[in-house]
Structure formats: structure tokens, C-alpha cells
Amino acid sequence: MEVTTDRSSSKDAELELELELYTIPAQSSWFVWDDIHEIERREFTEFFSESSITRTPKVYKEYRDFIINKYREDTSRRLTFTSIRKYLIGDVNLLRKVFLFLEKWGLINFLQKSDDVVVEESEAKIEQGTTPAGIRVTSTPNSTRPVIAPPLVEERAEPALTFPPLTSYSDVFKKPALVCGQPCPSHSAAFYEHNNKSNLCDKCFKNGGENNSAELIGSSAAAAWTEEETLLLLESVLKHGHDWELVAQSVSTKSRLDCISKLIELPFGDFLMGSASGRLRSSVPTEDEHLSSPSNLVQQMKTDGQEHKETETREENEEDEPPAKRKRAAMMSDGDSYLMKQVAAMACKVGPSVTTAAAKAAIAALCDEASCPKDIFETTSDYKNSAADRSVGDKDTSDIEEQQEEKEGLEDLPVGLRMRVSVATALGAAAAHAKVLADQEEREMELLVASVIDQQLKKMKSKLKFLEELEVIMDAEEKVMEGAKETIIQERISVLQSAFSGGITKRWDHTCVK
Amino acid sequence: MKASGKGPVKFRMPTAENLVPIRLDIQFEGQRYKDAFTWNPSDPDNEIVVFARRTVKDLKLPPAFFSQISQSIQSQLADFRAYEGQDMYTGEKIIPIKLDLRVNHTLIKDQFLWDLNNFESDPEEFARTLCKDLGVEDPEVGPAVAFAIREQLYEIAVQSVSSARESRLSKKSRRGSDYGSASKASGLSMDLVKLFSFKSSVVRKRKDLDVYEPMVDLLTNEEVDALEAREERHAR
């Protein structure tokens, strides 16, 4: 078998080879036709333990070769286990194990990714390394296909990965985006400068589409979503989930597409669609209380900044319902809301005065930069103050409504600046918080160093004490030794004296000398 | 999992999960409750009561069904447990399992081989794969297939208990080929020695392919009604 590594433009190389080429993942390059690899032996110990007549290496190899050859007869179709099991004699569970093993290693069905692979039990650990870098292998000489085949095999290096299209988006976004001037002739001529550089009249803007002009696409009946309708929509989505027909029926005045597009626009719409199995029943009541003033809600949804401030408040409101809050937290999927969430978190941490100071500084800097009067931010800073206060203080619904009314005054502020203000505030608050933390860290470090030094000193002192004691003992012992020495000498002297006074015989003298 | 006859094993369902198939068919005052499901014999017994109560409540059955349901489940479980202490014959035993069942509008006919000694086998997994590969949409078919497989396995496991008892009684001589005795004990198992020998291939012959191929039919409403009527007549 020849193995050639995948090259992106290997068409010329392929022309040289006259054998059929198949693509298998690089991880499976250990596979050889003629032999059974260690990996296979380990996986299928039952075949190699020689304890059964139905499970022998020969049987395993036959199963394996047959399955692979069957797949290679037509690599364009996905080989299913059911289609192959009728050909092989043996326990179907064992056969399935072999089949799954081969599929997992990409030796079969490599180019067809099963879309409901997830449904299968965890046994089938499908290798996710389906990179285009496959290894081309040739067919076995005794396969069912002729060895000399037409020279070119198409470069099927890319796995045929398709995702099922999201029905709601494709349903809604069929037509290109329309500028609002046309479908809403009744609306005022005042135009808004918008982030997206699309001009929307204020009515359409208010009616719930801010970043996407989805609402203006197609249906002209999607004019106004009243609060009752929004409420109904949310309830029916929670109840019926993805069944848009039923949802449309519940919200009687709106068609299916309208419901879908409206739901997308709502800040929590995506989340609801994703969790439409009804998990969020606990959060329905909180939604209701916010929807009690949905006109304010709708007006709020003008900018990302405001919208996410609102979700932030909602988040805080739900602290008494921890499970709902956790789910809300999970909902903030896109980057902007995440940012605003951080702002809120940091504002909480550093306290209101710091937040306001940071906001003011940020506004000042921005104003210098953009050379626009600070006055326009007057209300903004008040808003931020109140937001900071509120975020530290209590979490009543009434406060939010207050704040919502306050926000109505900010209708005419350009969106971009507000975004920047909030970002700058975030940065300021973050910096303040960081400085505080850094100071803390430094102090702690100093403390630790001091304690380390302390410990070392103590160690030294105890060692010194120990050595001193040792010295004292040694001195005492020395004295004792001296004393002993002296007494011995004394005794010796006295013995010699008595010996001399007694008279020394010659004999004794000699022995003494010796 | 060594497959050769290593000695008797305590009776249990020869599948990865030891689940007992339970069938209920209760008639009372003109109402009929038919059901088939798997039960975990290690569940505490009060679960039966809970299940029966829930079923009666959900299906709005008359309260007399409650005691009948729990009694039926209990007696089937008791039967199962009666076998539990005994030894089951083990050893190579590959048997053909046949499917011939109708679930709502889907008719399934199939035959395949099952190793009775493969304690990692999973009827539910098999049923899932079958339905997925054949594109069966009715979600009730899978569990019904798994149940049918389990029922057959249960029966054969019960038979192997009695065959183990037999072989123990006349044990002295039967040291030799366990496979021979296994295939004689129940006429169902295949002649494994012949099939898996060195000379033969494990690829099935063409003539047998039709037998072992699954067939799925979707019936029209009239056909379903006709079949149901016929079944009723048989039952009576």
C-alpha cells in the first residue's frame, strides 16, 4: 500500500499514481491491510484472547476488511451499520463494535459526517480531528474494485460538513435589507444616524429594530408590536418552543415570520429560542414585570449600551431568584452585553463615588478628544450616578422604572458617544479597581517578606542558643576531666611516695621502670 | 469478557443493563390497558406502587386498574427473581433473534444473530441504530424493538437455566465440548464450529441475505385497522 501525504495542489502527483486513492484521517495511518495493528488488538481483546471459536483474529480481519471494502465501493454514500450487518455472520453487537471502531478512526465514512452523531451513545467517540489533511491510501489489491482505475480521484479533502440552516433566520432574511423610507410611508421624515449606517426613521427605530433592519424586511404588517402582543409572544414561545405555527396563532395579529423576527430583535429573544423547552418558566414572572412598561422597554432598546444596561438591571433584580439569574447570565452571549456586564460588576466593586469620578474623567477626556460640549453628557452623568447608586443599593423594580423614565431624556444623544462613554467609564472603573487591588497586593507582599525575615531570625537565634548551651556543657565536662586528671596524678604521686618511703627493692625498681 | 464456558453464572439478563421486560394487558369494564416496558429489578418495590398510581392518573383509568397493574408487575418480577439465584448456562451461544412486530403504522421484520454470552450487548442501542439507519420516524418503534429483543433474550435465558440444571444432573460425562451440548440444549443456536472454522468465511452467502435483511413497511390506516381487528379476534 502506498501512502502519500495530502498536498493541496496534488493533482499532478495524482496523475502519476494509477491506483485508487482514498482519504483517511492522518491519525489512522497505522492501518495496514495485511496485518492487525496493536491498536486493534487492544480494542478488541475478545478476538485475540483465543478463548472462543467465534472470535478469532481471522474472523476479526474478515469483518474489518469486508466493512471497509463495502464502504469503498461507493464512498459517496454513508455506510450504515444496518446495511452491512446482513452480510456478516456473527453477534450483531460485536459487529457494531467493529463498525463503530472503524468509523471512529475514519477508516469508513470519513467523508460523510453523520449529523446526529451526538445521538449515538458515548461509545462512538467520533474523532473531531476531521481536518482536511487526510492521508491518501490506495485500495487493497483484493478489493472489489479493479486496481487500475481511472487516474483522477477528485480532491475531496474537505469533509462534507453541512449544518442544518437555522430556519428562523433564513425564513426572515430572504430579501435584502430595505431602508425604512419605503415601507413606512406614514412615518415621520426625521432620520436617525445609526451605528449601522442605515437610516431609519424614528418610528421604525422605536418599534423595536435597532441593529438590524430585520423588521423592515418583507412584511409591511409588522408595524407596531404592542405590549400585549410582545407579552403574548414571549409566553407562547416559552410554551410552544419552536412551533412557530402555534406561536403565530397565539399572537393572533402577527404572522409567523413577524414573530420570529420580533423575537430575534428582543435582547433575550435568542436565548428564549434556544431554551424554548420551557426551562425558563421561573423567569417568566420577572419578564412580566419588566414588560409591564414595555413602551419604555422598547424605547430603551435603542442602543447596545442602553439595552444592556437594562438587562443588567434585570439581572440584578433577579438576585433573589438565583436559578433565573444564572440563566440570564448565560444569555449574555455577544461581546457588547458582556462588556456592559463588566461595567456593572466593576461599578459594584469600587463603589459609587469612584464610579462617578471615573465616569466624569472619562467624559472629560472624551469631550476633549471629540471637542463637543460637556453639557450633552449632563444627563448621562446623572444617569450614571443613579445607575451606580442603584447598582450598589437596593434592587427594586420601582427604581428601574424611575431610571427608565430618566432615560427617555437621552433620546437625542448620538449613539456612538454613549457607547464610548460607557466604555471609558468601564475602563476608569477597572483602573481604579486595579489600583486598589495592586496596593493590596503590595502590602501583602511586604507583610509576607517581613514575616519571612522574622522567621529566619528566629531560626538563627535558636541555633545560637543551642550552640551556647553546647559550649557550656563542654566547658563543664572539660572541668570534670581536668579534675579527674588531677586526682589521678595525685594518686600516682602518693603511691610513688609511699613506695619510695617504704624502700625500693631492686626488683621492684626494675618492674617499675618497665 | 471471556466467552467460553467458564462455568455457570448467576441468572440475569445477558445485556449490559439488567432490565426485565414487563408486559401488561389488563381488561376491566370494557377498558383495556396494554403496555410493554423494561423494569430495573433492583429498583425498590415501592416504585411499582408509584408507577401504577402514576399510570392510572395519567391515563385516567378507573382505580381498579391500580391494584391490577401493581399485581401484574409484581408477579412478573417475582418470576424473574425466582430465577435469579440459579445458575445460568454460559458458553458460546449465538442465536438468531427474529423481529416481526407492528408499532402504530410501522411494520418491522428482521432477523439477526445475537450472542447470548455477550454481557455487553445492548438491545436499546441496537434498536436506536436500526431506527436511525432505516429512517424510522415514529419514536415508539425503537423501544418496541428493544423490548421484543429483550423478551426473546429473557426466554432463552430462562431456558438456559433449565438446561444448566439438566447438564448438572448428568454432569459427569460432559466435560468435553461445551459447544456441542449448548447447541443441543436449545435447538436455536447455530453450529458455531462449522461457521467459524478456518475454512469458511464469515461473509454470508447470497441466498441467506434476504432472511437477515431488515424490512420496514409503512401501513395505511386501513391496513392498520384490518390488522388490529385480526389481532383482536386472535386474542379472543
From TrEMBL, chain A:
<keyword id="KW-0238">DNA-binding</keyword>
<dbReference type="InterPro" id="IPR036388">
    <property type="entry name" value="WH-like_DNA-bd_sf"/>
</dbReference>
<dbReference type="InterPro" id="IPR001005">
    <property type="entry name" value="SANT/Myb"/>
</dbReference>
<feature type="compositionally biased region" description="Acidic residues">
    <location>
        <begin position="399"/>
        <end position="410"/>
    </location>
</feature>
<feature type="region of interest" description="Disordered">
    <location>
        <begin position="386"/>
        <end position="410"/>
    </location>
</feature>
<feature type="domain" description="Myb-like">
    <location>
        <begin position="225"/>
        <end position="259"/>
    </location>
</feature>
<dbReference type="Pfam" id="PF16495">
    <property type="entry name" value="SWIRM-assoc_1"/>
</dbReference>
<feature type="region of interest" description="Disordered">
    <location>
        <begin position="280"/>
        <end position="331"/>
    </location>
</feature>
<protein>
    <recommendedName>
        <fullName>SWI/SNF complex subunit SWI3A</fullName>
    </recommendedName>
</protein>
<feature type="compositionally biased region" description="Basic and acidic residues">
    <location>
        <begin position="304"/>
        <end position="314"/>
    </location>
</feature>
<dbReference type="Pfam" id="PF00249">
    <property type="entry name" value="Myb_DNA-binding"/>
</dbReference>
<keyword id="KW-0805">Transcription regulation</keyword>
<keyword id="KW-0804">Transcription</keyword>
<dbReference type="InterPro" id="IPR007526">
    <property type="entry name" value="SWIRM"/>
</dbReference>
<dbReference type="InterPro" id="IPR017884">
    <property type="entry name" value="SANT_dom"/>
</dbReference>
<dbReference type="Pfam" id="PF04433">
    <property type="entry name" value="SWIRM"/>
</dbReference>
<keyword id="KW-0175">Coiled coil</keyword>
<feature type="compositionally biased region" description="Polar residues">
    <location>
        <begin position="292"/>
        <end position="303"/>
    </location>
</feature>
<feature type="domain" description="SANT">
    <location>
        <begin position="220"/>
        <end position="271"/>
    </location>
</feature>
<feature type="domain" description="SWIRM">
    <location>
        <begin position="22"/>
        <end position="119"/>
    </location>
</feature>
<feature type="coiled-coil region">
    <location>
        <begin position="450"/>
        <end position="487"/>
    </location>
</feature>
<keyword id="KW-0539">Nucleus</keyword>
Automatic annotation (TrEMBL), chain B:
<comment type="similarity">
    <text>Belongs to the SNF5 family.</text>
</comment>
<keyword id="KW-0804">Transcription</keyword>
<dbReference type="GO" id="GO:0006338">
    <property type="term" value="P:chromatin remodeling"/>
</dbReference>
<dbReference type="GO" id="GO:0003712">
    <property type="term" value="F:transcription coregulator activity"/>
</dbReference>
<dbReference type="GO" id="GO:0000228">
    <property type="term" value="C:nuclear chromosome"/>
</dbReference>
<protein>
    <recommendedName>
        <fullName>Chromatin structure-remodeling complex protein BSH</fullName>
    </recommendedName>
</protein>
<dbReference type="Pfam" id="PF04855">
    <property type="entry name" value="SNF5"/>
</dbReference>
<dbReference type="GO" id="GO:0006357">
    <property type="term" value="P:regulation of transcription by RNA polymerase II"/>
</dbReference>
<keyword id="KW-0805">Transcription regulation</keyword>
<dbReference type="GO" id="GO:0005634">
    <property type="term" value="C:nucleus"/>
</dbReference>
<dbReference type="InterPro" id="IPR006939">
    <property type="entry name" value="SNF5"/>
</dbReference>
<keyword id="KW-0539">Nucleus</keyword>
